[in-house]
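ingest -> fold -> write
write: protein_1
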Amino acid sequence: MAIDTLAYVKELEAAGIDRNVAEAHVKALSDHALPDIATKADLGTLKSELTIRLGGMIVVATGILLAAKFFG
């Protein structure tokens, strides 16, 4: 995820925050909070993986039910 750190610092400065404090805040945010945010690409990958898993579980469950019906 990209963030315009300079614009962020300027916004904080405009609100009356000292530049050094604003820069420290942006650095902390970039280093600790932003790396953990899921992007749209992350969610798309997760959706695909979950769809494949769910499909696999449905196939296996159907196979087990059919085997139980015909052989049990």
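write: protein_2
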Amino acid sequence: MTRKTSHFQRKEPILEKILQKIRFRKVFPFVKNGYKVLDIGCGYKGALLKILSSDIDKGVGVDFAVTKKIVAKNVKLVSQKNLKLPQNYFDLVTCLAVVEHLENPKALIAKAYGSLKKNGKLIITTPSPIAKPILEFLAFKLKVISKQEIKDHKKYYDKKELIDLLAFCGFKQRNIEIKYFTFGVNILAVSVK
């Protein structure tokens, strides 16, 4: 499936917003006043950056399509086709529920790595392999999460695969912390440059 729309560009099933909030809560402890934050896969409305806008210096959100409306004075949303990331600039890069959708996640993670300042953090969330049948049931049978999102999944990562991906892109293994959440269905990776 080739994506043409961003998450939340159209109306989404009821559980999508709840799952989004769970992912956002994983990011909040890592945000500090004055941070410059890049959200890769920000969704159509840049919801995470809008929430963080009063605490950060600057936010940049990237996705397939983004609203032209101003989300906040210090937040800029850009289409991925216009993506030119500054080097060594961001304090925090988030990539929530994105890597599982990518044909070539190495290219994206390498760009994220390059855009981080020294000691900057990359936060990734992604479903684990045990999530596949659960997510498919919720999307295709119960219809309470997005069919488009689940159909678009290319890979479900386990802990080792995610560490290997991050290490390949420049992160030292000792600076990568992996935790499972939502009963092991999702993985949180926090990597320090």
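write: annotation protein_2
Helices lie at 14-27, 47-52, 105-115, 131-141, 147-151, 159-168.
Residues 14-192 form a domain with the Rossmann fold fold (CATH 3.40.50.150).
pipeline exit 0
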